[in-house]
Amino acid sequence: MSKLLSPDRSTVLFLGNEAIARGALEAGIEVATGYPGTPSSEVIESLAGVARERNLYVEWSVIEKVALEVAAAASFAGLRSMAVMKQNGVNVASDFLLHLTASGTRGGVVLVSCEDPGALSSVNEGESRYFASMMEMPLLEPTDFQDAKDITKWAFELSEAIGNVVMLRSVTRMSHASGNVTCGKLPTKRRNAAFEYDGPVMDSQTGPMISTPVMAKHLLRQQKLKDVQRMFDNSPFNRYTGPAKPDLLIITSSACFLYSCEAVEMLGLQKRVGILKLATTWPLPPNLLEKYLRKAKTILIVEEVMAFLEENVKVLASGIAGRVGVKTFFGKYNGALPFAGELNPDIVADALGKILKVKRKSLPADYQTDVQKTAALIPVREQTFCAGCPHRASFWNIHNAIALDGRKGFVCGDIGCYSMAALSPATGYHTMPTLHSMGSGTGLASGFAQLSRFGLDKPILAVCGDSTFYHAVIPALINAQHNRADITFIVLDNAGTAMTGFQPHPGLAVSALKDVVPAVDIAAICKAIGAKVAVSDPFDLASTSRILTSFLADKGSLKVLILRQACALSPEKKGKKAFDVKVDESLCIGEACGCNRLCTRIFRCPALTWDRDTKKAVVDEVICAGCGVCASICPQQAIVKTEVSAPG
Amino acid sequence: MIKKPGSQTELKKNVLEQSLCTGCGACVGLCPYQVFYADRTVQLFDCDLPEGKCWAFCPRTPADYDHIKKSLFNMDDLTPEIGAVKGYYFSRAFDPRLRVNVQHGGTVTALLELAMGEGMIDSAVVSSRNEEFEQHGLLVTDQNQLRGYSKSWFTVSPTVAAFNRIPDDRKKRAGVVATPCQATALAKMKTAEIPGYNGSDLPGLVIGLFCGWTLSMEKFYNLLGRYGLSITDLTGMDIPAGKNILELFTAGGLISVPMAEVDHCVRTACRYCMDSTAEFADLSVGAARFGKDCEEMRGWNQIIVRSDRGKHLFELAVAKHVLQIREAPPSALLELKNAAVEKKKKALKNIVEKSHSTKNLLYLKSDDPVVRKYLGVEKKRKGKL
Amino acid sequence: MKEKTFIKTRNVILTGVGGQGNVMASRTLAHMLVDAGYVVTIGETFGMSQRGGSVMSHLRISHDSVKSPQIPRGGADVIVGLEPLEALRVLTVYGNPQVCVLYNSRPVYPIGVITGELSYPSGETIRDAFERLSAACWEIDATSVGLRLGNPVLSNIVMIGALSKTGLLPFDRRRFEKEIKKTLSAGKYKVNLKAFDAGADMIK
Ligand SMILES: Cc1cc2nc3c(=O)[nH]c(=O)nc-3n(C[C@H](O)[C@H](O)[C@H](O)COP(=O)(O)OP(=O)(O)OC[C@H]3O[C@@H](n4cnc5c(N)ncnc54)[C@H](O)[C@@H]3O)c2cc1C
Ligand code: SF4
Ligand code: SF4
Ligand code: SF4
Ligand code: SF4
User: Fold this and answer.
1) Do B30 and B137 sit in the same domain of this protein?
2) What CA–CA distance (Å, rounded) separates B309 from A493?
3) B161, B176 in Cβ contact below 8 A?
4) What is the per-residue pLDDT for C7?
């Protein structure tokens, strides 16, 4: 039995994302959708794992906007549904979201945004909390794992109570952390889908699901928010811990609550500091805040990235200053806490210590000195493509084609593992000077290609992954073709959404539920758009390089090269080596003129290491994935590959 | 002798970025970093070795060229105008079937066939073309195939790269057809002093081609375009003596292009080249020309025999009736020398213009006797003007 | 061996390089402890690439309450390193004179070391540092054992086996058996148990 379906009252270790999924199951969710993105993916993944048993419909949608639309349809038909995405996904879905909050919803529908303060696995530190206030929808932020489950469950009830979508926000340290969760009951009843639309326009249950009449619906939504405030004032998820008259009141939410508790403990300030944990962060519960703002003169607001909570608390406090008195606020605006990066107990403790002038117990001085000396000996471990990664071979080909062409062409990057090509010197052949949102590489390339008339005479390339292609590249590609952009566009097709854990996408004949579904062929789409299309295996350096150089030389049209090779960690490859690869020491010339360590100095597969004593390259069998690419770059044929015969 | 070590970075700074690269291919095929593509020498990746063969072999890096010449040839044979001369003749291949499809007299191809047939070499590097007519060096190991790679194409062929790719133990058994810059590179390979490297007897035979310049592919293609031609239309090309034209042979007949139009298609690097007769080769071959009677000599070559090895092959060719010989009149040699001196002076003038100094002569040493001689003449003349 | 108990929260950091099975090891460990009645919080840090980067799991084992998923500086009680350099890196941030360290001796070289721009400290330097900077440390060659058992990734289980024998955490072979019985197929179960035992045997 799946852990997600553990019985009522059992205590299990859940990942934050699993806790959210369990909460949704306890709420009786019928439809769950999402687009993969760290740290959100496990919510949909774990629901997909129990979909059959629980009779759910779960899909990996092509793009977040569609995910929300599919979820909304279920809500309109009276079912409970959820759309899950990472922070920037909310931006993508936001146009529909604006209209959805205007039309209202029926069955409980929750938008889950898992955000990434500190950009641990993102290229942005986006914030979606502001969408809650901008679109006037309630925002819930669980502070621990039990909360994550319970609040998710409640979110569906709230959504139905106000007839609108509710947003639930998690962060990496919640989604990707695990903790004990005591399970509740899983419902046994199922709802039937029925969509009614013949009733009066303003009837939320039987009328059409539209955003007009705009004013009337807008006023209705705002009125409902007043109900929300009342519910939030009484919510058991908001809690105060600490002395009756604290010297300082911390107001916080999400994982920052745990950091705050730890910081108070570290400094031994349990008797002086109170913590107001808010799980309902928009709209703020006015009476609850008033009650606790009265308790202390000094307020510290602990939250990550932007000062959303701080701003809203300050607005509220200024409105009731006559009753609660004037406060001294600490937070982002006065510099107590940073506006960028994630927080942790140390950062919060340092801030708290400074405000209250208390010192943390420190380690013995000689220990500290020794630690510092030791730390200086530790080389950084930069991120790099995995051993056997097809992207290494692809960028090798791209780099060489650009060098051969000689016009200093460049690659517009996109979002995926291949974004690492923008990091130098991790890959060594840095060729990606732009990196933005999904699909933007192709859009930017389409723009750069128009600049030759103003003197930018360089070959313009763009890359994207297979999943990204379906997500947001297609409009940009059509734009490029229609406007005669001369670009060489490369699809790094590694057969799945590798970066986030191999979720299927429309190019594969399998769905989130493991059903056989029609695959949508990238090459056919590109051909239909009118591009010249070629397909190659990036591990075949010779033919890939031939195609790429000829594409760069072929001026004036849109060219698409699909580089097909599954990710080194993909389920079908994992653990299985295609080749046994070894360095023949007698042939390796190492640092000598004629090679100068091409494999370890330039190619940089983490499995190819350099033996400083023998001055030869060595393949580390533990790390080597057996792709065999290094054998085709060695000028001495010193890297020898032998095919691993398939067992049986 | 000066021993100035150098790296790939310096090669980039002092040769490639100075437009001095002749495209000879000497730095290509030695390692994975240097390649030749679309008429250019390309550095794929930076190499951080402080000293390398690429720099050592390049004909456009500074070296003591006078010393190299003296160590490879008999001092008594050396002339300032055209290098070592053991003999000077007009020649052509005896075999009329061979002469059908050659540039001039087929001397080059005939000599290669003989050298291979006699076991003097067991392979030869000649120039071949791909579908786009880009040239590249090709190693031919079958004597019977040599005739497939005759005729001259005036765009660059990175021939030496193909020589570099021959396994070390077989290099000394290979012959190479080389333009002057390529012959210079091969001479530098023979004399380079690099730890763990011995090039003293590589390669087995160098047959040099006379050379006035090579053409930039891009510019030449544009020129052809103006004549409504594409490179694939050409069946051959030549520069007949005394006419000041470039002849283009096509299926539709002969097209003559005035030299003035061809001039600006010449590779920049060639403007700084002093050598018109491949002074570092064992034997050098060009079109025969003297006086006004050029047409009559069209099917003939002039040949300079320079080294002992060259002499041996030449004598064998005559004895075995592989080559047909005519004594060249002294006026022909004089004409050749005058033309060679002209090229030297022009090159030195261009070099000084580029470096803005008679002390800094880029890849040449200002105290090299030949350089001094023609630089001096230049200066004196200027003084008189 | 009897399961030991402790009074305050135990802070354990498991660290290694992506691809070494760090996450699987920390979750297995945590599941055993939840089963034993503890409140466990795990925080995981791994970067953009699935392999090759530093990976770290923070385990907080408490009798009663959820903890921050990030351990404060200098706050580790136990460091388990699947890779020596990463263990040392963690020690320099989270170590203190009372910390105990168990680490796998087999290095995975960072790219900067492979290219020659950086250098990797010698085994001896690393051993010395651990001896100076910890209360107790154990070095074992878990990768070789994994290789011998047919898959180097088993080194993570070898480490768990060794950890059980150090007595630093309240779990034993019985609990491990029970845990993997739930999660692994019969074939995998056997070899994992072998790896566990081999690890336990390496701690004297
Ligand atoms: C770029 C160039 C410029 C020349 N300039 C002059 C000149 O100014 N005055 C003069 O008298 N002669 C010049 N020649 C030499 C002349 O064209 C003939 O090659 C020479 O007379 C030999 O004739 P042949 O009939 O013996 O040649 P063939 O027997 O036809 O053999 C010609 C040989 O040259 C090789 N070859 C062809 N093109 C090239 C190339 N681009 N680079 C290297 N090898 C090549 C072929 O592979 C073949 O081996 C030049 C040759 C070249 C390639
Ligand atoms: S590329 Fe080949 S010759 Fe060069 S160091 Fe690596 S194994 Fe040795
Ligand atoms: S075969 Fe070569 S390139 Fe591929 S993973 Fe192994 S060492 Fe790396
Ligand atoms: S120094 Fe040697 S290895 Fe480096 S680029 Fe030059 S020839 Fe190649
Ligand atoms: S002249 Fe020859 S050796 Fe020198 S850089 Fe150019 S191709 Fe290389």
Assistant:
1) yes
2) 58
3) no
4) 59
Q: Which residue, A261, A11, A271, A237, is CA-closest to A139?
A: A237
Fold held by A579-643: Alpha-Beta Plaits (3.30.70)
Q: How does residue B234 score in pLDDT terms, banded at 50, 70 and 90?
A: very high
* Ligand 4 center from residue B49 Cα (angstroms): 7
**Cβ neighbour number for residue B29 with a 10 Å cutoff:** 20
Contact B194/A at CB under 8 A: yes
pTM metric for this prediction: 0.93
Q: Domain for residue B2, yes or no? A: no
Residue of C nearest to A370 (CA): C133
Q: Can you list the pairs that A368-377 forms with residues at least 24 positions away whose Cβ atoms lie under 8 Å?
A: A370/C132, A370/C133, A371/C91, A371/C92, A371/C95, A371/C133, A372/C92, A374/C88, A374/C91, A374/C92, A374/C129, A374/C133, A375/C89, A375/C92, A377/C121, A377/C125, A377/C129
CA–centroid distance, B103 to ligand 1, in Å, is: 7
Instruction: Supply the pLDDT for residue A383.
Output: 83
Atom of ligand 2 nearest to the CA of A639: 7
C-alpha torsion C7→C11→C14→C15, nearest 10: -150
Of A12, A258, A606, the CB nearest to C67: A258
Q: Which residue in chain B has the smallest CA separation from A634?
A: B32
* DSSP H or E run through A535: strand A532-536
Would residue B1 count as lying in a domain?
Answer: no
Q: Which two tokens stand for residue A538?
A: 């990036």
B351 C-alpha to ligand 5 centroid (Å):
17
The CATH code of domain A239-356 reads: 3.40.50.920
CATH of the domain at C74: 3.40.920.10
* Token duo for residue A463: 């890359």
| Cα–Cα distance, B137 to B36 (Å, whole number) | 11
Q: How many residues does chain A have?
A: 648
Tens of pLDDT, residue by residue over B306-344, are 999 999 999 999 999 999 999 999 999 999 999 999 999
**Ligand index nearest the alpha carbon of residue B28:** 5
Same domain, B299 and B175: yes
CB of B53 within 8 Å of any CB in chain A? yes
Of B33, B326, B82, B318, residue with least CA distance to B183: B82
Give the other-Cβ count within 10 Å of C181's Cβ. Answer: 11
* CB of B47 less than 8 A from some CB of A: yes
| Domain around C110 | 10-201
Residue A420 is predicted with a pLDDT of 79
Contacts of A541 in chain B (CB under 8 A): none
Question: Tokens 């739930």 label which residue?
Answer: C182
For helices B330-355 and B369-384, the axis angle rounded to 10 degrees is 80
CATH of domain A390-564: 3.40.50.970
Q: Which of A154-163, B219-228, C14-23 has the lowest mean pLDDT?
A: C14-23
Asked if pLDDT for residue B384 goes beyond 60, the answer is no
